[in-house]
Target: Uracil phosphoribosyltransferase
Amino acid sequence: MKSFTEINHPLVQHKLSVLRNKETSSATFRKTVEEMTGLLAYEVTRHLQTKEVAITTPLEETTGPMIAEDVILVSIMRAGNSMLEALLNLMPFARAGHIGIYRDKFIKNTVEYYFRLPQNIKGKRILLADPIVATGDTVIACLDRLKQYEVGQIHLLTMLISPEGLEKVQHFHPDVDVLSASKERGLNEKGYLLPGIGDAGNRLYHTLE
Model:
């Protein structure tokens, strides 16, 4: 079953406009990505399993729900690291992994240069973070690798996704839950999303094109 959710909440869209603005500084860009990730995470985590635990308030004994799932957060490096830190701040109980994969334009294929996941992730819920999904090739490669470990439900959390990228993800991995702030108009000749936010990694870390 194909699942795609576009978050049109005013706060999310306001922060997306900040990210789109080319005059936004790297510091503000990083902070906005962090804040926006928190808003997106609110939506993607609403169905996490909880359990009732005993709590002593300043006034009496009571019970309350606490998250009972072993959640695995995975960053697609390098831009995904900014989202990962925000997710860890919200869910310090979660475990985290990193995948480094890029598309090499010369060999016209993806290249994996780093792969590190926590142990015992079979059947575990995965939150996969990447600010931008353009062609979708890198995300597909990451999803392929994650499924080699027989993980549970995968949620792809992204700021922007192209129609082409979404179609590719849904074709090869229709069971993956995709959540984004915007499905963009398309891609330009260099593979950048339109209207887009430019190169997320460069803008996050103030590096050159």
